[in-house]
Amino acid sequence: MAAAFERPTFCCCRKVVPGSSKGEERSRIRSRPRGPPCPVDIASSSNFQHFELRHLHLELEVNFVRRQIEAVEVLDLVSLEPATRSLVLDSHQSLLIRSVSAKCSCNSAHNSWPLSHRLDPFTDYGSSLVITLPAAIKAHTNFQIIIKYTTADGPAIWWLDPELTSGNSKPFLFTHGHSVCNRSFFPCFDTPAVKSTYSATVMVPPGIKVLMSATQSTFDEQENIYRFQMEYPVPAYLLALVAGDLISADIGPRSRVWAEPCLLKMATAKLNGTVEQWLSAAENLFGPYMWERYDVVFLPPSFPIVAMENPCLTFIISCILESDEFLIIDVIHEIAHSWFGNAVTNATWEEMWLSEGLATYAQRRITTETYGAAFTCLETTFRLEALHRQLKLLGDESPVSRLQVKFEPGLHFTSVCN
Questions:
Q1: Taking residues 249-269, what's their average pLDDT?
Q2: Does residue 351 carry a catalytic annotation?
Q3: What is the pTM of this model?
């Protein structure tokens, strides 16, 4: 690692990336031409290279009293290899797998089978769910895997008593999948190398609002069931859910802010009109915004990071409302992830610096467009000095001081990532 950093020079050009229509954009991202072999992701125990995941569906029943989610997961898959006799998914010790079955239209007949499965140890942040596949499932055959399971106290799912929320009125639930946590929410190919569309139905007690990182949502008031659909392929870590005492207000033609009732007025005043300005500046620089909506939900102070770029629905900690400058920078950074990280994603977690580095570059291009080069230079100088202080405290040999991390088998992810 170099002893010192040179202060960067900023490019503030107004170059516009040629755009395309929404239909062309959706068609482009859905197409999956065969390219080079899949990368090896040492943080995943799954055999994702042997399958194509076409869609993921979740049916969730949230129980705040027991702090459990009763779940059914349906994976639409295609086997890519003729000799693959098992499906290996990333899972977690906290998941209680109740049953696994398969459905397939093989030899012009509709077949279904109960499947044997086992949970093998992988690391302290996950396990391997090994599912034996029936011989009738051949290569390039569409089939479904149905998993019935119950969640418990896993790292992806955060249960809050009413006293830990801003309003102190109702319980609260949110999930956080970054980076390798969503395997404790649902068994999956928990690697950024695999993307798929997803859908979900969520049942909650009356009076609880549910949001997900999805392009479409509906609510059945009679059954008290929320339904969600994500029309664009996303990696597993970007599937997110929040449930609690939440209300909303529009802050732009394609944006809405969600917060607890006691915070909504402040959140709306801070972001009203500005999010659309930031989105338009980003589109002028990087091309059309593909995710259709950009909403923001403010979470209680126990949210473990400042903000998370879940597509269509940025999660952000409510404490940041006390600082206009950090609110501006962090929301713009999450907007930048809509292009760099969400639309184009690093193939493995060893390459996470690509997502964060490009998003930071894009964030500074956007702030230069909207607030001028002086604002961007001041923010960058502040962050650079903070980075120097942190590197001095950590030392050059610390794993979290490195731009590109290298994983070792069994090593806890958080010990090498900052």
A1: 97
A2: no
A3: 0.88
